[in-house]
Write a structure and sequence with these properties.
Layout: H1 5-11, H2 19-25, H3 31-39, E1 48-52, H4 60-65, E2 69-74, H5 77-87, E3 92-96, E4 109-115, H6 123-133, E5 134-146, H7 157-167, H8 172-176, H9 192-201, E6 209-220, H10 221-228, H11 232-235, H12 239-254, E7 260-273
Parallel strand pairs: 1-2, 1-4, 2-3, 4-5
Antiparallel strand pairs: 5-7, 6-7
Helix pairs in contact: 2-10, 7-12, 10-12
The protein binds S-adenosylmethionine.
The site of S-adenosylmethionine has 22 residues, from β2.
Length: 277
């Protein structure tokens, strides 16, 4: 599933360089995700949730809004700081560190969530630790949004290819394949068999569920610049190159009717119940 965790290790620290952009640029997740968390995983008042890789809180806010008590483990110090500032004085504990390394109480959480973050955790450690911290009968919920959909027309697909061909051709192959922009191969969220197998492999979960949610996002030029400036392959570009790509995408959107584009998105959700309880 992950061939080169060394690259992941170098890339996963980059989010701390883009806290503002991340907070303003990532669109959050469709309501159906939270409906699944409530109806399947029992999310609600006083439920103890562990959140892995919360960033500036795209998911933390909706969890707190539903009355959950959240412990969030965040690798990046600037992200962790923003999260604390943003949600104080909510029932939120923010732990700084890598999920695989921080000490957490075993069998303590009702739900463990990881949105767009579990691929940043070494696979050989991550799933076993999720199982260890969950109460018997608790739920793991991992999900990813994919900011394009190969089955629907994406008005930014061609402008993106043009901009990458000009400024960052090494990111082009993945963009053409309709994967997460700049990522080699399929998006982690769409590796359905591997994801389901990872739950089965630790021997601590009932068979996992997979849900694919189709939705779309409408963005102004500024929103497109912010969003693309949060993707890790883009964060790894030289600042001048990143600015050039973002400027070109922004100019394309600006020239569209109303200065907006509507893009097809997917959110792939994986839910599994901890055995026992
Ligand atoms: C793509 S962002 C997702 C943020 C948020 N969950 C969301 O859905 O918008 C990934 C976040 O995970 C954090 N992260 C990466 N590796 C981590 C790890 N091993 N343990 C905890 N956090 C990690 C990054 O610092 C970043 O804030």
């Amino acid at each position: 599933m992950v061939e080169d965790f060394g690259l992941h290790r170098r890339r996963r620290v980059l989010f701390g360089t883009a806290v503002d952009r991340y907070e303003r640029g990532r669109p959050g997740y469709p309501a159906k995700v939270y409906a699944l968390l409530e109806s399947v995983c029992g999310l609600g008042p006083d439920v103890e949730v562990l959140e892995i890789g919360p960033g500036p809180g795209q998911v933390t806010g909706p969890l707190l809004d539903r009355g959950a008590r959240v412990t969030a483990v965040e690798l990046s110090e600037p992200m962790a700081r923003r999260l604390r500032e943003r949600y104080r004085p909510a029932p939120l504990a923010v732990l700084l560190g890598a999920f695989e390394a921080v000490v957490l109480p075993e069998r303590s959480f009702d739900v463990v969530v990881a949105a767009a973050s579990f691929h940043w955790v070494p696979p050989e450690l991550g799933m076993a630790k999720v199982a260890a911290v969950l109460r018997p009968g608790g739920w793991a919920a991992l999900w990813w949004s994919i900011y394009t959909d190969s089955e629907r027309e994406d008005p930014l697909a061609e402008p993106l290819r043009v901009a990458l061909r000009r400024h960052a051709p090494h990111l082009l192959a993945a963009a053409s394949a309709g994967a997460h922009p700049g990522q080699a191969g399929r998006h982690h969220g769409l590796e359905v068999d591997d994801r389901l197998a990872a739950f089965a492999l630790v021997g601590a979960f009932e068979p996992a569920q997979h849900h694919l949610i189709r939705w779309s996002g409408r963005h102004t030029a500024e929103e497109v610049r912010l969003l693309f400036g949060t993707f890790s392959p883009f964060l790894a570009l030289e600042p001048g190159v990143l600015d050039a790509v973002l400027a070109e995408l922004g100019a394309y959107v600006q020239a569209q009717p109303g200065g907006v584009v509507e893009r097809p998105y997917l959110t792939a959700v994986y839910l599994a119940r901890r055995l026992g309880g």
